[in-house]
Amino acid sequence: MLRVDITKQLGEFSLAASFTSEGRVTGLFGASGAGKTSLINMIAGLVRPDRGTIVIDGETVDDTAAGIHVPTWRRRIGYVFQDARLFPHLDIRQNLDYGRRMNGLTEDPAQHKRVVDLLDIGALLDRRPGKLSGGERQRVALGRALLSKPRLLLLDEPLGALDESRKLEILPYLVRLRDEAGVPMVYVSHDAAELRQLATQIVMLRRGQVTAFGGVKVLTGGA
Amino acid sequence: MSVFEISPTEWTAILLSLRVAVIATLVATPFGIALAWLLARRDFWGKSLLDAAVHLPLVLPPVVTGYLLLLTFGKRGLVGGWLADHLGIVFAFRWTGAALACGVMSFPLLVRPIRLSIEAVDRRLEQAAETLGAAPWRVFATVTLPLALPGVLAGMVLGFAKAIGEFGATITFVSNIPGETQTISSAIYSLIQTPDGDTAAARLVIISIVLAVGALVAAEVFARRATARLHGQ
């Protein structure tokens, strides 16, 4: 479960969002500049809200009234950025293992194999990020986030930097992730078609305000 | 004795210079990394003052830096007196004092490449590390520092090259005692004031040039590797 009730002033732009989502995939939908990335960064703890609360999986990670702000690294979230942000000095195997090491988790070969198979990245393990295509990088980034065993997976336009054919290459993996990985996701996109395929609940943002909340059908309501 | 044969006195000066420069660089590097990180990644009150203080040895006359070191770390100096009384560490007229003078004089050259390479590390990668559960100090140890490592090595090489050639501050602070504080530079200085010292001075001059050029080449190689590394090759 994810509960968000925050306000944030960013220069001229004011963001106010309030929703509770039980969905497996919560889609944050809106045009660019609607405040989607600011909102997901607040859930990640990278940006601090001016006022309000954020609750992830029953734990209050932000409560400005009570002075609570759990730092990003203690939130146990996974974050897949638009630009994969793989560590260039580590090979793919070390990239995938990074979250496990930082969280002090014991090795879990079964989970490792499941994720590597799910994303078809077994052949890439000994390579460096610089040698990978955009689509491959994004799949590794998904795997890296999953292997840190997050309780919430945040995806900020993970297909945004890819061309059409690459998008079609990745989408099936995201569907499999939703159905098999068992981690709730927040999925940011400005592409209604993408969210129709993936999301179970939609938060529609416009100029920093939530204009609609509900099932995927709100996407057809009048975006 | 052949023109190219290095005399025992010269060897002593060369080895002393190497020891002084190695120790100065190794001791200064952790401080240099910490300071470079502060200047590259943190905003705080007095940051530009600190930045100016780091660069001071570069713009002050070396004799002034040496004299200030003598006042501070000399036997009757504020810090030097305390260190001598309580820890038994003496800098005045010892090779350790030469190392201190070289460390201080080379510090700006050491810090600068490290700072630049830390600034060049993509902060979005540090953010990604944080979302994967890395505490700030582990982000530094596992992402920032490895990616900045070629810059750290370049800074160390440049600092070493500066330290091995330092003259003004060293001779002011610890004088020119053969076998204790007479480095290559002060040996050359003594030799060119001695009749018939020209050949020996020339040998040491050539050695100085070789060491300096070698350090610059090494720094260049590290800089190239830094670029390759940041592009994930």
How much of the residues of chain B is beta strand, in percent?
under 5%
Radius of gyration of chain B: 20 Å
Tell me the series of helices and strands of chain A, N- to C-terminal: EEEHEEEEHHHEHEHEEH
Give a count of the beta strands of chain B, DSSP E runs of length 2 or more: 0
| Percent of residues in helices of chain A | 25-40%
List keywords for this structure.
heterodimer, A: 223 residues, Rossmann fold, six-stranded mixed sheet, five-stranded antiparallel sheet, 7 helices, 28% strand, B: 233 residues, mainly alpha, MetI-like fold, 10 helices, 78% helix
Topology summary:
The complex is a heterodimer of chains A (223) and B (233).
Chain A: E1 2-10, E2 13-21, E3 25-29, H1 36-44, E4 51-56, E5 59-63, E6 68-69, E7 77-80, H2 92-102, H3 109-119, H4 134-147, E8 152-156, H5 164-180, E9 185-189, H6 192-198, E10 201-206, E11 209-214, H7 218-221
Parallel strand pairs in A: 3-9, 3-10, 7-8, 8-9
Antiparallel strand pairs in A: 1-2, 1-4, 4-5, 5-6, 10-11
Chain B: H1 8-41, H2 47-59, H3 62-73, H4 78-86, H5 95-120, H6 123-131, H7 136-165, H8 168-174, H9 184-192, H10 198-230
Helix pairs in contact in B: 1-5, 1-7, 2-5, 3-8, 5-7, 5-8, 6-7, 7-10, 9-10
Description:
The complex is a heterodimer of chains A (223) and B (233). Chain A contains 7 helices and 11 strands. By secondary structure, chain A is of the alpha/beta class. In chain A, the strands form 2 sheets. In chain A, strands 7-8-9-3-10-11 form a 6-stranded mixed beta sheet, sandwiched between helices. A 5-stranded antiparallel beta sheet of chain A has the order 2-1-4-5-6, with helices on one face. The mean pLDDT of chain A is 91. Chain B is mostly helical. Chain B has a single domain, classed as MetI-like fold (Orthogonal Bundle), CATH 1.10.3720. Chain B is built from 10 helices and no strands. In chain B, helix 6 packs antiparallel against helix 7. The chains are: A alpha/beta (223), B mainly alpha (233). The interface between A and B is medium-sized, with 29 and 24 residues.
